[in-house]
Design brief:
- Pfam families: FKBP_C, FKBP_N.
- This is Peptidyl-prolyl cis-trans isomerase.
- The chain starts with 12 loop residues before the first helix and ends in a 9-residue tail after the last helix.
- Helix 1 crosses helix 2.
- It has about 190 residues and is of the alpha+beta class.
- It is built from 4 helices and 6 strands, in the order ααββββαββα.
- The protein has a domain at about 60-175: Chitinase A, domain 3 (Roll), CATH 3.10.50.
- The chain is elongated, with a radius of gyration of 29 Å.
Length: about 190
């Protein structure tokens, strides 16, 4: 029995160069993906400063002069609330790890009577807007123990929808009118009873 030998053609040098270049690209991509995955993991489990530094580089995240970080999820329209307003909002508050510590579908909040970072975030918004806020501890509760689900020195993460806002004076006037109406005084402009 005879075996026929089939000669194997040599691989051209150009093809070897292409193979090495492709291998180099794959190694570089693997290192980049590993570094990105590691930086996210370090940011999530690292210090507040590491997390906020990493978060500031994420697409769409903006940082104010005070250090409040926010992302516009949906633009609103019209004017912005001020310290003299009461904002009607829908919100969900979480810690960095996603633990929900508070949420509400319709909460009236005086803009000037919430933690500084939340107040600053509300004043950036417009009616109908939705923002995500990252509030560093110094703009939140700091090192205070709130006695609840928020540990001291926590970064607070809020998703906030600004439903409406009105001046505090108008709200107080409306409340006064309701109280007067509930005491038999009738609504303003209503005919007097006989």
């Amino acid at each position: 029995m005879s075996v026929t030998a089939v000669p194997i053609q040599p691989t051209p040098r150009r093809m070897i160069g292409v193979l090495w270049a492709g291998l180099a690209v794959l190694v570089i991509a693997a290192i980049a993906f590993a570094w990105l995955g590691t930086s996210a993991a370090v940011a999530q489990t690292g210090t507040n400063e590491q997390f906020l530094a990493w978060n500031a580089r994420q697409p769409g995240v903006q940082t104010t002069a005070s250090g409040l970080q926010y992302k516009v999820l949906k633009e609103g329209t019209g004017a912005h609330p001020t310290d003299t307003d009461v904002a009607l909002i829908k919100y969900k508050g979480t810690l960095r790890d996603g633990t929900v510590f508070d949420q509400n579908e319709r909460a009236p909040l005086p803009v000037a009577q919430v933690v500084p970072g939340f107040s600053e975030g509300l004043k950036l918004m417009q009616k109908g807007g939705k923002y995500r806020l990252w509030i560093k501890p110094e703009l939140g509760y700091g090192d205070r123990d709130t006695g609840g689900a928020i540990p001291p020195n926590s970064v607070l993460v809020f998703d906030v929808d600004l439903l409406e806002f009105i001046p505090m004076a108008v709200l107080q006037q409306m409340q006064m009118q309701q109280m007067m109406g509930g005491q038999g005084g009738g609504a303003p402009g209503a005919p007097a009873g006989r």
